[in-house]
Structures are given as structure tokens and as C-alpha cells.
Automatic annotation (TrEMBL):
GO terms for biological process: tRNA threonylcarbamoyladenosine modification. Its EC number is 2.3.1.234. Fe cation binds at H118, H122, D313. Binds 1 Fe(2+) ion per subunit. This is tRNA N6-adenosine threonylcarbamoyltransferase. It is found in: Cytoplasm. One of its GO terms (molecular function) is iron ion binding. It is an enzyme of class 2 (transferase). Required for the formation of a threonylcarbamoyl group on adenosine at position 37 (t(6)A37) in tRNAs that read codons beginning with adenine. Is involved in the transfer of the threonylcarbamoyl moiety of threonylcarbamoyl-AMP (TC-AMP) to the N6 group of A37, together with TsaE and TsaB. TsaD likely plays a direct catalytic role in this reaction. HAMAP family: TsaD (MF_01445).
Length: 344
């Protein structure tokens, strides 16, 4: 198969992102450019992402971000072989901005359009960064999703379990909010936790005794809130200790579940390498990564975590997922719809 240059566009949440990825004959990917503009400032005063503001910022910035991605890749738009854009799941206003821009570019350049599932972007990133072969076990932990998935091939995903309430990133964001740590919550909690005592509070670990690969984080979040209320007004040390105790609890929960998922992998697919691929924004958390590293080392399994910049939302993962689908002959029509909800 001839090498292809794919433009990837990502606008499903609060990152306006564009990237050019090259997929060569052997199926290997190279990132030629990867431009991300975070909307942190737009949403800072509101303690979370405001959908309408996000959509407007995407409108304002996307053309510039795409132009910059072209400059950094040192190519012209006409050099692109296909345009990939996130079509969901996500905040619908933002998704519409990116998908409509993708359609317009594809039409103007007379090049194919690939509508990409954002979650598929996260799921396939480890193939771009680490060349991981199918099938593999993935733990996807992002702002909207927390699940174990057996990635059997492009478009072929088997869900093994996941959260029954809040996503893990959402739990981080809510805990950050109730500790007044600002947004985005995950990095803020991680920062605060550095000077905290993770053993000061013992928070619940819902579902952990049950033999299933599911998560529940809403009870944990409530326990954190009750603890914060009981101690109010919180000293800086209280905040750090709560953050550290919460983070350690989460790490223990995810570590246990991931060990069980690897055990299931060994049972059901004895010939496969013991490997856990982690994807999504929460994979940027060092405490979590360390817990998973220790567990995998003890279990004789390989842990694959893409570089942080490719775990959080970006255009390269969309370009790459588009490239993988393009290589299999996928093309989308200009009538393809934006989807606020779109399970893997
Ligand atoms: O994958 P992502 O960038 O966007 C979604 O598709 O949701 O994930 C964003 C989520 C947010 O909830 C954010 O708080 C969390 O990932 N996150 C982190 C860290 N960095 C980002 N959570 C914990 N620790 C971090 N260092
Ligand atoms: Zn994401």
C-alpha cells in the first residue's frame, strides 16, 4: 500500500487540535505535526467546560490550528491524501465545528473524508506510538469513559467491563472542584497530592470485592466530599492529604482491576503476550502509571503507555485512526452525522 498523509482534526471537547500523520507502506505511522490549543483560559472561571464557549472557541481557532499543522509538517493542503475528523462522541457543538470543517476541506481538495470515533482514536494510539499488534487489552481512562476493551482490530472492540457511574477523569475533575483546585481537575489533584499524606484517609473501594471488571467511582467521590465537609475550613495540608488519599485509592482500584483483566486475558487467550495498553487523559497520572508498572512487573506483563501528549486529546490520534481505517478502504460520505454519543 502506498504511503498516505492524513490530516486529523479533533474538536470534541476543549482542545482544538490538528495533526498530520504519515502512514508508510509497512503500516507504521510518523507524526509530522501535532498542534493542540487548549481552551483552559476560556473555561477557567466556570470550573468546567462550557459547551457553547467551547464550540465558539473551536470556530475561532480551528482554521489557524490547521494552518499551523500544515506549516509544521512543511506540506501544502493539496499534499494531503485524506481528511479525518472526529465525528463523536463529545460536545456536539464542537464536534460539528471539526466535522464540518473536515467535510469542507475534503470537498474543496477532492479528497476522501474519514469520520473518526474519538474513542477509537484513543484505542489505536498505542499502534502509532509503540506499533502494538492486534489483539490487545486496553484500559481506556478519560474524562468521559473508563473501560477495559479487547482491541481485536480496527473497528472490532469487545468491552470487558467499565464504569457503572462516573468516568475516572470525571471523578478527578469533581474532586478537584470540591477541593477548589481548579480545572482541569486531574493534573490539579496530582499536583496537590505531591505534598499530601496518602494514608491519612481511607476511602471506600466500591465493587472491588465483586468478581467483575467494572468500576464505580461515584461513592468514592461522595466519601471525599463528606470528608472535606467534615474538616471544613480546609487547610492547605488537608487539601493535599485528601487529594493524595483519593489518588492512592483510585490507583489501588485500577491496579486490582487491571490485574484481574490480565488474568482473564491469560485465561481466554493463552497464546497472547501478557500486555496492558493504557489510553486516555488519565493515563497521564504518574501515581496511576507507577501502580500499573509495579503490578505489571509482578505479573510478568508488559505495560504500554503512550507519551502523555498523545494520551490527552490531540489530532494525531484522530489522523492515525483515520489512516488505519483509510488503509482498510473506509470512506465516509458528506452526509455522515456528528454523534454526541457513540460507543466503541
Ligand atoms: O482523554 P482526555 O484528554 O479527554 C477525554 O476524551 O475525556 O481526558 C481528559 C480527562 C480529564 O478528566 C482530566 O482531568 C484527566 O483526563 N486527566 C488526568 C490527568 N491529566 C488529565 N487525571 C488524572 N491525572 C492527570 N495527570
Ligand atoms: Zn479523549
Amino acid at each position: 500500500q502506498a504511503p498516505v498523509l492524513i490530516l486529523g482534526i479533533e474538536t470534541s471537547c476543549d482542545e482544538t487540535a490538528a495533526s498530520v500523520v504519515l502512514r508508510d507502506q509497512s503500516g507504521q505511522g510518523t507524526i509530522r505535526s501535532n498542534v493542540v490549543r487548549s481552551q483552559l483560559d476560556e473555561h477557567a472561571a466556570f470550573g468546567g467546560v462550557v459547551p457553547e464557549l467551547a464550540a465558539r472557541a473551536h470556530v475561532e481557532w480551528l482554521d489557524h490550528i490547521i494552518a499551523q499543522a500544515m506549516r509544521e509538517a512543511d506540506i501544502a493542503l493539496t499534499d494531503i491524501d485524506a481528511v479525518a475528523a472526529t465525528a463523536g462522541p463529545g460536545l456536539i457543538g464542537g464536534v460539528l465545528v471539526g466535522l464540518t470543517t473536515g467535510k469542507a476541506l475534503a470537498a474543496a481538495l477532492d479528497k476522501p473524508l474519514i469520520a473518526v470515533n474519538h474513542l477509537e482514536g484513543h484505542a489505536l494510539t498505542a499502534r502509532l506510538t509503540n506499533g502494538v499488534a492486534f489483539p490487545y487489552l486496553m484500559l481506556l481512562v478519560s474524562g468521559g469513559h473508563s473501560q477495559f476493551v479487547l482491541v481485536r482490530g480496527v473497528g472490532d472492540y469487545q468491552r470487558w467491563g467499565g464504569t457503572i457511574d462516573d468516568a475516572l477523569g470525571e471523578a478527578f475533575d469533581k474532586v478537584a472542584k470540591l477541593l477548589s483546585l481548579g480545572s482541569p481537575g486531574g493534573p490539579a489533584v496530582e499536583r496537590a497530592a505531591r505534598s499530601g499524606d496518602p494514608k491519612r484517609f481511607r476511602f471506600p473501594r466500591p465493587l472491588l470485592r465483586e468478581d467483575r471488571l467494572d468500576f464505580s467511582f461515584s461513592g468514592l467521590k461522595t466519601a471525599v466530599r463528606l470528608q472535606a465537609e467534615a474538616l471544613a475550613p480546609l487547610s492547605e495540608q488537608d487539601v493535599a492529604d485528601i487529594a493524595a488519599s483519593f489518588q492512592d485509592t483510585v490507583a489501588a482500584i485500577v491496579e486490582t482491576r487491571s490485574r484481574q483483566a490480565l488474568e482473564q486475558l491469560a485465561r481466554d487467550y493463552p497464546g497472547l503476550p501478557q500486555r496492558l495498553v493504557v489510553a486516555g487523559g488519565v493515563a497521564a497520572n504518574r501515581r496511576l502509571a507507577t501502580a500499573l508498572e509495579t503490578m505489571c512487573a509482578a505479573a510478568g506483563a508488559e505495560l504500554v503507555v503512550p507519551p502523555i501528549a498523545l494520551c490527552t486529546d490531540n489530532g494525531a490520534m484522530i489522523a492515525w485512526a483515520g489512516a488505519e481505517r483509510f488503509a482498510l478502504g473506509a470512506r465516509d460520505g458528506f452526509d455522515v452525522a456528528a454523534r454526541p454519543r457513540w460507543p466503541l
